[in-house]
């Protein structure tokens, strides 16, 4: 029998999920102050041995690429080598990958999230908006599905079966039939409960809209998922955006008649690389 969930139930049952990584909010809060961000990020990294190991590994790879024989162990030097932007990317990706795994989602969920995060980042270059916010929006855009799978796994599988039996069925319609709410609405409620910035909440809520609000972060998230679907970067996702919003294109100044082969190549290459690094 289909569920008829209320919004209050979403928040109550969110306790079944692992604790949302506070490092995400801590990073977003420091974006406007590069000097504060450096010291704060290094402190965050050094508190987590997994992230520390990943940062040092990538920094050492950069050293080896320069043909310098050196076992790098100093975090300050490591950050100076890989850069602040790359450091934020590592911290965000590792933290959210861990959150996804602890929530019980398969690797396909994380592969798709990384691909959309990368696509949103690359599109943010065109739209001149924050790369870090774009990455977070892409990584978290389908967070409502994670709640569905953890809290109501049977209904979650029924949605998947419905999509397989009727390939033209829209994912949101299937979810509303089985849950009473779609993953965009559930994602908005979770992101609000986690005190994420309003811009990130809006991107999560509206990334499937045919006519989304005219906002750059919504646009890069919406188009990022559409591009990932078109490039067929990962083949397990049923929640792909099946249309391209004209509003989103206008907001970013994108005309698809232009040559985007270089952009698509970067998205595909970076997605596969990050998936390999953070898996």
UniProtKB/TrEMBL annotation:
Pfam family, one: HDOD
InterPro entries registered for this protein in UniProt: HDIG_dom, HDOD, RNase_Y/CdgJ
Domain spans labelled HDOD: 17-210
Protein name from the UniProt record: HDOD domain-containing protein
Organism encoding this protein: Azonexus hydrophilus
């Amino acid at each position: 029998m289909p569920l008829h969930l209320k919004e209050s139930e979403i928040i109550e049952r969110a306790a079944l999920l692992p604790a949302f990584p506070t490092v995400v909010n801590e990073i977003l809060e420091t974006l406007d102050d590069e000097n504060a961000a450096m010291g704060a990020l290094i402190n965050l990294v050094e508190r987590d041995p997994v992230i520390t190991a990943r940062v040092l590994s990538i920094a050492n790879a950069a050293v080896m690429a320069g043909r310098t024989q050196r076992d790098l162990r100093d975090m300050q030097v490591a950050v100076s080598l890989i850069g602040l932007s790359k450091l934020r990317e590592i911290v965000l990706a590792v933290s959210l990958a861990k959150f996804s795994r602890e929530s019980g989602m398969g690797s396909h969920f994380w592969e798709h999230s990384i691909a959309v995060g990368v696509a949103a980042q690359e599109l943010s270059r065109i739209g001149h908006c924050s790369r870090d916010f774009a990455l977070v929006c892409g990584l978290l855009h389908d967070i409502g599905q994670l709640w569905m799978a953890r809290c109501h796994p049977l209904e979650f599988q029924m949605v998947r079966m419905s999509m397989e039996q009727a390939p033209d069925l829209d994912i949101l319609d299937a979810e509303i039939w089985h849950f009473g709410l779609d993953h965009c609405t559930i994602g908005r409620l979770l992101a609000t409960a986690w005190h994420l910035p309003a811009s990130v909440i809006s991107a999560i809520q509206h990334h499937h809209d045919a006519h989304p609000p005219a906002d750059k972060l919504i646009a890069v998230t919406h188009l990022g998922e559409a591009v990932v679907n078109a490039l067929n970067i990962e083949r397990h996702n049923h929640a792909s955006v099946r249309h391209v919003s004209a509003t989103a294109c206008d907001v970013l100044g994108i005309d698809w008649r232009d040559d985007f082969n270089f952009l698509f190549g970067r998205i595909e290459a970076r997605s596969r690389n990050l998936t390999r690094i953070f898996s």
